[in-house]
Design brief:
Blueprint (H helix, E strand, L loop, with lengths): L2 E9 L3 H9 L1 H7 L13 E2 L6 E7 L5 E12 L3 E4 L13 E8 L2 E9 L5 H23 L3
Antiparallel strand pairs: 1-7, 2-3, 3-4, 4-5, 5-6, 6-7
Helix pairs in contact: 1-2
Length: about 150
Amino acid sequence: MSVGLTITRTIAAPPERVFAAWTRPEDFSVWFGGAAIHVPPETVVMDVRVGGRWTAVMRVPDGSAIYWHGRYTEVDPPRRLAFTMDDDPAADTVEPVVVTFAPAAGGTEMRLTQPRDDLTNAQLAQTLLGYNAFFDTMELLLSGRD
């Protein structure tokens, strides 16, 4: 896998709960996109098993929509989740995003690794900003302060 970016966060919740935030549509729709982007819960479909597909629609502030899709390549609750991710309906990305969950002081160490694929340096920098906004929202969700 050509690593594009790695983000590590400690989330104040047990690994089972953080893993669930990635695999339960009602949680995923809250944090995916961060505070600025709406993901209608009814657009999130998750068949969380190896080979299962997932979809989600982001409604961005300018009124446009981003249609995300992919498939799960590894599902090992609550330790590891790997899935492909693409916003091009005609594409089927091969290299997965990998998220690991490990017990840590104060909760769970969550590490996301995303392949570079064909992203430019500017796109990678924007992706990093986006994920950090998403994970800020996830932290609020899992702390009960949302």
